[in-house]
Amino acid sequence: MNEYSIQTRNLNLWYGDFQALKNISTDILKGKITSLIGPSGCGKTTLLRCFNRVNERYGNVRTTGEIKILDKNIYDSDISLIELRKAVGMVFQRPNPLPISVYENIVFGLRIHSGERNWQKSELDEAVESALKGVSLWNDLKDKLQAKATSLLLEQQQKLCIARLLPLKPQVILMDEPCSALDADATKRVEDLMRELAGEYTILIVTHNMMQARRVSEECLFMMLGELVEHAPTETIFSSPKDSRTADYIEGRYG
Ligand SMILES: Nc1ncnc2c1ncn2[C@@H]1O[C@H](COP(=O)(O)OP(=O)(O)O)[C@@H](O)[C@H]1O
Ligand SMILES: [Mg+2]
Known about the structure:
Protein name: ABC transporter-related protein
Domain ABC transporter: 6-250
Keywords: ATP-binding, Nucleotide-binding, Phosphate transport, Transport
Bound molecules: adenosine-5'-diphosphate, magnesium ion
GO molecular function, one term: phosphate transmembrane transporter activity
Strand order of the largest sheet: 6-7-8-3-9-10
CATH superfamily of the domain at 4-96 and 170-250: P-loop containing nucleotide triphosphate hydrolases
Strand content: 25-35%
Low-confidence stretches: none
CATH topology of the domain at 4-96 and 170-250: Rossmann fold
InterPro entries: AAA+_ATPase, ABC_transporter-like_ATP-bd, P-loop_NTPase, PstB-like
């Protein structure tokens, strides 16, 4: 069994003439939380979006190099983008549930990913309960399954956005500044949730909050101007970074 979920080798990405990722080679530990930090515009979101090949939606994007997810090169011609995006789920800065019920948000993925299959109501009910339990929302929402998801508290919306990935049995969950719309208490609870999900899932989180990186992640990647400057255990990054640019950033000298 590979101990890494994601491995990149010499990954480069251009938006038109602008090179946003430069020669990134890294190995992301399986079942752990890894955080991605660095000044605004350094390429964190771009790197995250490589892992489910969503960048390709943004026209005029060119990528070179290799990305392996669970030992499979995701640029191989036989890769299914649908399967890839089931295996690699994503959560965004602003919670973005669909403007339909809690229940329908959770079964949506199952329905669109299962083609002609007819789901029994009991199977769907079970998927909903299990996904909501997976994010500790079951008690709060079991009597509100028909409520419109967009009417929930932001914290519940964000947890629901995580919950709706779970029925698809993802290997990796990408989170792009998932707490930036939440207050401090809600942030703490979402961090608790990430810790519960780690182990079963590999979590990659972009954060501009260095304390958050320190609290939740086992390993940390520091990026600058499209380069991966340093990748090390989080404690090492914060207590004895090797690169002076990392030290300057975590001491708040820029960014
Ligand atoms: N769709 C796009 N088209 C052109 N340039 C982009 C696009 N998305 C991001 N960029 C540029 O790529 C660089 C990295 O952006 P991004 O990955 O969003 O950084 P971060 O998430 O670290 O703030 C920035 O200079 C940004 O302006
Ligand atoms: Mg970003």
